[in-house]
Amino acid sequence: MTDLAALYAEKRVTADEAVKAIPAGAKLAMGLGISQPPALLKALAQRAEAGDIADVNIYYLLSVKTAGDTVLRYELTDRLRPYSLFHGAIERKLDQRGREEGRQGVWFVPVSFQQTPEVLVNQIKVDTLVTTVSPMDEDGYFSFGVNVDYATPVARSGARLILEVNENFPRVAGDTRVHISEVTALVENHVPLIEVGQAPMTPNDEIIGGIIAGMIEDGSTLQMGIGALPDAVCAALFERKDLGVHTELMTPGLIALIRAGVINNSQKAIHTGKSIFTFAMGTKADYDFINGNDDFEAYGVDYVNDPAVIAQNDKVVSVNATLQIDLFGAACSEYLNGRQFTASGGQLDFVRGASRSKGGKSIIACHSTAAKGAVSRIVARLDGPVTTPRNDVHWVVTEHGAVNLRGLTDCERARALIGIAAPEFREGLMAEAREMGLIQA
C-alpha cells in the first residue's frame, strides 16, 4: 500500500524548486481565472528575470491579476510568451504596448471554449500544467474544484503537473480529481482567492434582464455568460420555480438563485438535482457555498460545453452578451476598435446546444448603443470576425425589445433588427439596408 503522506512529503517543495522542473522550450498550460497559482507564477517570473529560463510558451484563458503581476509582465514576454485563448484587460494592454514598440506583446489563438482541451492536448501538445488545487483527501486526491475547464483533460494527457495547494480552494464533486502519484511537484500556499462580485447594473441592463426573464419558463435549464446583462437576468428570476443549471461559468447571480431555492435542478434529464459547471468566479461566500456542496458538480469543458450534452436537457435557455449584431443577424462578441477584445469563449457552444434542446431558446443580448449613445451596436456590417453566425442566432434582445430571427428572410431580419435598434439610428440603418439590397422598398 502506498504511503500517501510520505509521497506527499517527497513531492512537496518550495516554489523556486518546483518551477525548476519546467524546461526551456516548454509548452505550459496555466490555470484559468482564480486557479492561476500566485507562488508558482511569481517563482517562474523571477526565474525568467534572472535569465535562467527562456523560450517558454504559456497557454491560458481569462488571466487575472495573479498572472498579470508575474508571468504576463510585458518585459518578460520575450522569454515567457503569452498565448491567450481569451483576451481581457491584461492582454489588451500587452497588445497595445507591443504595437507601440513594433513587436508582438501577446499572441491570440482563436478557439471555441469546448475545443480548448483538444487544441491544447492534440494540436499544441502542451507538456506542463501549472494550476491551483484543493488539499489532498485521505485517498490521495486533489481537486481541480472550481476550475476543471481544461485542467482535467490536460492533466490526463501525460503533462507534468506542478500544483499549488491552497486550503481556500473549493473541493467539488464531478470529474475533478488528480492523484498524488500523477504529480511532478507541489507547493503549499494558503492565500485568499481572487474575488469577483456582480458587475454594477445600469437601467438598460435591468430592462433587458426583465425582457429576457419574461422569456424563461418554470423548469428551464440555464446557461449564463459573464457580465452585467446575464446578472440582470438572474436578478429578475426570483419568482420562477424549478429552474436548473448547466453552464460553463457558475456566477454569483446563479448562486443567489440556488441559495433561494429557485434553482433546484429537479426538471433536468441529466445530472438531475445537480448544478453543472466547468469553472466558477465569485466571492468568498460563493466559494465557501460551493466547497464540498453535493449539489454542485464540475466537469471538463469538452463535456460541459458539448452541444450534444447540453441538448439532452429540455428548455435550455442560453443568455450571452455581444458587441455587435449586423443586419443579417450575425454577432461579433469579441472584436472592438480593430483589436481582439475578448474571444468567442463558449457562446457558440451554448447557442447550438440550446437550439438543439426541446423547447430551448438561445438569446443574444446587447445594449442598442455604445460609447454613451454615440454608436449603434446594430450595424449594417460587422467590424470584426463572426462569433455566432447568422444561421445560428435565434433571439436578439436590446432594451427596445426582442426579436426571433428563426425562419425570417434577409429582408425580414433587417427590418426586425432595425426595429430594436436605438430610435436615432433606425433611419440610417434603413438607408444602409436599402443600399445593400436587403430592403427593396
UniProtKB/TrEMBL annotation:
Keyword Transferase: yes
Domain Acetyl-CoA hydrolase/transferase C-terminal: 282-433
InterPro entries: AcetylCoA_hyd_C, AcetylCoA_hyd_C_sf, ActCoA_hydro, ActCoA_hydro_N, NagB/RpiA_transferase-like
All copies of domain Acetyl-CoA hydrolase/transferase N-terminal, residue ranges: 8-192
Keyword terms, alphabetized: Transferase
Keyword Transferase found: yes
Gene3D superfamilies linked: 4-hydroxybutyrate coenzyme like domains, Acetyl-CoA hydrolase/transferase C-terminal domain, Glutaconate Coenzyme A-transferase
A Pfam family annotated for this UniProt entry: AcetylCoA_hyd_C
Domain of life from the UniProt record: Bacteria
The family this protein is said to belong to: Belongs to the acetyl-CoA hydrolase/transferase family.
Protein name from the UniProt record: Itaconate CoA-transferase RipA/Ict
Organism: Brevundimonas terrae
Biological classification of the source: Bacteria, Pseudomonadati, Pseudomonadota, Alphaproteobacteria, Caulobacterales
